[in-house]
Automatic annotation (TrEMBL):
Species name: Caldovatus sediminis
Signal sequence range: none
Start and end residues of each ABC transmembrane type-1 domain: 83-302
Family from the record: Belongs to the binding-protein-dependent transport system permease family. CysTW subfamily.
Protein name: Phosphate transport system permease protein PstA
């Protein structure tokens, strides 16, 4: 019940204004208490999970674990191929989805005509953000693996995750552009700036914080996805690394690694926890810690870039 409705009802009942104020204060306190309890439940649950991972995985986390390939012996098994594969897949995902998502959002928000077709596209983009990830895996299996012939490769995995998180970046970028005050646009147009100059020199710098937040959320979801990568054929056991991107001979740069087989940390963890017995559980917990650290490092990098951009922007 809103404050106006509460005041009207109280006036109809002949309640004094002091009583109405106490009712509002009590309602605010109850809502704040419920919100605090909900927040603490989530925080305590997350803390308990991280502590459990740390207790199980920290004794196993060392240089040998990071630089060894998977093995049938728990003490000798490592995650070298898994974390390298995760890093390469996320690199492809970021390179594809960040410019594509931001460009699509700019077009929909600043250039696209406001008609029924645009409205249908906007609704579908919002709905795609909630589609289960396994659907994207099936789409990628038919499109990238079979139709385009890219195979079960790092490139296919990166494109699959790019499709998965693309709607998140589009929606977040559009909201960030809408948050820029209209006076910024009006002032720029009044000085004779073109539409593209307004976008490049004003809207994008001022909305960089919201865009970076959307990118962080999108990539954080992508790095932990397993179902679409299993669908397109990611390996659960791999004892070699992709081809190096740099060669000693001309042309010195190689893209062969894009078409090599791969595995990622979530799949390696799934492989270990699905084995009978508990011998590999510490390995899975240690891999989980590495995955969390990679996510935090990726987020900190995006936050650093956002802070640097904000320092250059003056309202």
């Amino acid at each position: 019940m809103s404050g106006g409705a509460l005041s009207a009802e109280a006036a109809a009942r002949g309640m004094p204004r002091a009583s109405v104020g106490r009712l509002r204060s009590n309602a605010d306190l109850i809502f704040a208490a419920i919100g605090l309890v909900a927040l603490m439940i989530g925080v305590l649950t997350l803390t308990a999970l991280i502590v459990d991972l740390a207790v199980r995985g920290l004794p196993r986390l060392d240089l040998q674990f990071l630089t060894s390939f998977p093995s049938r012996r728990p003490a000798q098994a490592g995650i070298l191929s898994a974390w390298v594969g995760t890093a390469l897949v996320m690199l492809v995902t970021a390179v594809v989805t960040i410019p594509l998502g931001i460009a699509a959002a700019i077009y929909l928000e600043e250039y696209a005509p406001k008609n029924r077709l645009t409205a249908v596209i906007e609704v579908n983009v919002s709905n795609l953000a909630g589609v289960p990830s396994i659907i994207y895996g099936l789409l990628a299996l038919g499109l990238f693996v079979y139709l385009l012939g890219l195979g079960r490769s790092i490139l296919t995995a990166g494109l699959t995750l790019a499709l998965l998180v693309l709607p998140i970046i589009i929606v977040a970028t559009r909201e960030a552009l809408r948050a820029v005050p209209p006076t910024v646009r009006e002032a720029a147009y009044a000085l004779g700036a073109t539409r593209w100059r307004v976008i490049a020199d004003h809207l994008l710098p001022y909305s960089s914080g919201g865009i970076a937040t959307g990118v962080i959320i999108a990539l954080s979801r992508a790095i932990g996805e397993t179902a679409p990568l299993i669908t397109i054929g990611a390996l659960t056991f791999i004892a070699f690394l992709p081809a190096p991107p740099v060669r000693p001979e001309f042309p010195f740069v190689s893209f062969q690694w894009l078409f090599d087989p791969f595995t990622v940390l979530p799949i390696q963890m799934f492989n270990w926890v699905s084995r009978p017995g508990t011998d590999f559980l510490p390995n899975a917990a240690a891999a989980g810690l590495v995955l969390i650290l990679m996510t935090i490092a990726m987020n900190l990098t995006a936050i650093y870039i956002r802070i640097r951009v904000r320092r250059k922007v003056k309202w």
